[in-house]
Write a structure and sequence with these properties.
The chain contains 5 helices and 4 strands. The protein has about 100 residues and is an alpha+beta fold. It is globular, with a radius of gyration of 12 Å. The termini are close together.
């Protein structure tokens, strides 16, 4: 999880991401997402909707081992993040390693 956490933080700092369920669904519909990351404790219906959409759009879905508060902390945010969409990985190697 340390490598994933490091790469998430690099992507947030140097690339372009969308946070939250609505933002993630929007990037899937616009076909701008390269990868989706969901927190382990995400609401079942929300996570299943995102999983279904990402499968249809053929976008890789990764489950973050921590909860939404920990995912928010990894992103450097003082709030919980249930889902994250990688639009541009920036300096991270998240698309290659995850």
């Amino acid at each position: 999880m340390a490598d994933l956490s490091t790469n998430i933080r690099l992507a947030v700092d140097s690339g372009k991401v969308a946070m939250g369920a609505r933002g993630v669904v929007s990037t899937i519909k616009k076909n701008t997402s390269k990868m989706i990351i969901t927190a382990a404790n995400g609401r079942g219906d929300t996570v299943s909707d995102i999983a279904h959409l990402s499968k249809i759009a053929n976008i890789k879905l990764v489950k973050f081992e921590g909860n939404s508060i920990e995912l928010g902390a990894v992103c450097g945010k003082p709030y919980s993040v249930s889902a994250l969409s990688i639009i541009d990985p920036g300096n991270s190697k998240i698309l290659e390693e995850a």
